[in-house]
Specification:
The protein has seven helices and ten strands. By secondary structure, the chain is α/β, with parallel strands linked by helices. It has one domain: Rossmann fold, CATH 3.40.50. The strands form two sheets. The protein has a seven-stranded parallel β-sheet. Helix 7 links the parallel strand 9 and strand 10. Helix 1 crosses helix 2. The longest helix is centred in the N-terminal third of the chain and has 16 residues. The protein is globular and about 45 Å long.
Length: 243
């Protein structure tokens, strides 16, 4: 595990984006699994600027969605796919054939899971998983107590996550379940990038990075990965004992 602490969210995002672009540079047909949400938004902005400035061709990249609310897809404002479309996929003009993303409205959710599993295998695994950190230590929609051996699966959303998740919607939505890559999928990725910012996350950052590794704090399990990079701003890192 490598921990990088930057002065603010902007510099943290730029540092992480540099790392992602460096990893991708030598790869042919790289596979990314990007999280949606506030934490990685700045990283995607920096990546897009770099790609445009250096005229980098991203047309051969593949994308695997990390998670989605059950009952939603890209047509729903506030869904994970909706945010990722706006923040990354549409600006990069990624062909839909190069994207595998859970459709939470599908009649056959197990088929959605199988399609994602098959997509990952077909393209020889995920090169980079880009994730954030939940207030209860979740990663993706792997809530506390989730079996870390699981691959893609449906999940029951913790009450804390349900409350915080309302910020993505203009009106209150029922978000009791989700569909997500498992901890096993994330750990099987060749590189993992975790981004966390803000004072409100400082306590859970300290617990996840310096406490006992436990499935009760799913993100702590990522510390076992040999290529695990953690990017924090000073506020998120403020309670760490070993900076």
């Amino acid at each position: 595990m490598q921990i990088f602490v930057e002065n603010n969210y902007e510099s943290m995002s730029a540092k992480a984006a540099d790392e992602v672009m460096e990893i991708i540079a030598p790869l042919k047909n790289p596979v990314l699994s990007p999280a949606s949400g506030d934490s990685p938004k700045g990283l995607y902005k920096e990546m897009i600027e770099t790609i445009n400035q250096k005229n980098i061709d991203a047309s051969d990249w593949y994308f695997v969605g990390l998670d989605e609310w059950l009952g939603m897809n890209g047509d729903d404002e506030g869904s994970c796919r909706h945010h990722l479309n706006n923040d990354l996929l549409i600006p990069l003009s990624i062909d839909e054939k190069r994207i595998s993303f859970f459709d939470g409205k599908a009649k056959d959710i197990q088929n959605e899971i199988q399609k994602t599993n098959d997509f990952i295998k077909e393209h020889s695994g995920i090169d980079i998983a880009i994730v954030g950190l939940g207030m209860n230590g979740h990663v993706g929609m792997n809530e506390p107590g989730t079996d870390p051996s699981l691959h893609s699966h449906t999940s029951e959303i913790d009450k804390i996550t349900q409350q915080i998740g309302q910020k993505y919607f203009k009106q209150t939505r029922e978000i009791t379940h989700g569909i997500t890559l498992g901890i096993a999928d994330i750990i099987e990725s060749r590189h993992i990038i975790l981004l966390v910012s803000g004072n409100k996350k400082a306590a859970i950052v300290q617990r996840v990075l310096e406490g006992e590794i436990s499935e009760e704090f799913p993100a702590s399990l990522l510390r076992r990965h040999k290529n695990f990079g953690v990017y924090l701003d000073e506020e998120a890192a403020s309670l760490l004992q070993n900076k």
